[in-house]
Specification:
Helices cover about 50% and strands about 5% of the residues. It is α+β, with helices and mostly antiparallel strands.
Length: about 325
Amino acid sequence: MKKIKIFFLILFFLNSNLFANENTDFEKWKKDFKQRALANNISEKTFDLVMTDTKFLANVIKYDRYQPEFYEDTKTYISKRSSTKKLNKGIDFYLNNKDLINVVENKFKIEKELLLSLMGIETNYGTYVGKMDILSSLATLSYDKRRSEFFTKELLILLKLIDQNQIDYKSLYGSWAGAFGFFQFMPSTIKNHAIDFNTDNYIDLKNSHDAYASAANYLKKIGWKKDSPCFYRIDLKEDIPKKYLNVSAKKLQNKKKLGFFKKYIDNYDDISFLKSNYNVAIITPDKDIIPGADTLNPAYIVFDNYEIILQWNRSLRFALAVCTLKDKFKNEL
């Protein structure tokens, strides 16, 4: 028993030293980052006001390394995010916000079912927008080496938005990755696509009017096509060349006309009603994620709209879940 206590004491002190070193390095990084911020025309007053109290958040690094997209199989991931409970909550939200949602759909030509699906999956219809200090989260991820440049750019954009009085820094609580509001916009998305829909001279992405319209504006700007397909589940034949199987969301490769893939799809009759000249890709999302996963199963044929959702979130499973829940709403609203 005494040896066990000594072991845990040693472990405690080792972790304490590691954490102390991390904090020391983070504070040094913050001083260097200040010079980059000032060089990007962010005022020293703003930087000192909002960055002085930012902290290294060890949990953010843990969350970054252990995202559901990296370990849940496709069936589990989609089922959790398109459940009957999620569907019913979305229907209730729609009934309580019908006028706004219909106006947004008509103005931006983005289906209400898609917007409901995205809001449901991102924040459970605004009931969970995240409680992390976004400035500290982005600073931690900028300091970390894995995706430092991406998060550094996002942090600089956020500081600029604060500097220009477009965002109240005191309201910046959201996801561990720095996303904010009902639809979890990153700073670059806020800068490029968020709009003041209720014309109160303030963009509030935790307000249904601004959030819904901003999400619809974003989808319209990046090319979503209303009433066009997203994906279909397919059964592949064993002789399909592996080069046609996409396992990464970074960039879909070897896209072809749908008719080209006919010879490789066992259940092609199930999708024969689709135009054969649709430009499509094939994804097998479990292969490089789930140990021992079948190379050809599950498999999906995906269309341009699917790639639009990938621009929203670079995850093969996320895009499948969004379109699945969207289709469920279509049968209910």
